[in-house]
Write a structure and sequence with these properties.
This protein is mostly helical and about 110 residues long. The protein has 5 helices and no strands. It has helices at about 5-20, 30-40, 45, 55-60, 70-90. Helix 1 runs antiparallel to helix 2. This is S100 calcium binding protein W.
């Protein structure tokens, strides 16, 4: 399988695995989101960008439709923000501040 194929299928598989634990199916509640962040993010570069202890703030930032759960679109936004942070870390390139509140890396492409 090509690398991008793997990335896409992994994102979907991880979301579905954790979203079916508790709460609504195919959505992540606070506990499920916390598990994803703690168990599926292991690299120090990304782990340092996540404050898993402050899950309330993470939920508030990600939960754009304010239903108390993270749907797949909101989860993808989170993964995209982490990817942007990692990109900026690797390239040393900065940029403008993210729009919206409390984005962890403070840069956008």
């Amino acid at each position: 399988m090509a690398r991008l194929d793997q990335v896409i299928t992994n994102i979907v598989d991880i979301f579905l695995e954790y979203a079916d634990d508790e709460g609504k199916k195919r959505q992540l509640n606070k506990e499920e989101l916390k598990k994803v962040l703690e168990q599926e993010i292991q690299s120090p570069e990304l782990k340092s960008k996540i404050n898993a202890g402050d899950i309330e703030e993470a939920m508030e930032t990600l939960d754009k439709n304010h239903d108390g759960e993270i749907n797949f679109r909101e989860f993808c936004r989170c993964v995209s923000d982490l990817a942007k942070c990692y990109y900026h870390k690797k390239t040393g390139k900065g940029g403008k501040k993210f729009k919206g509140k409390d984005h962890e890396c403070g840069q956008e492409d």
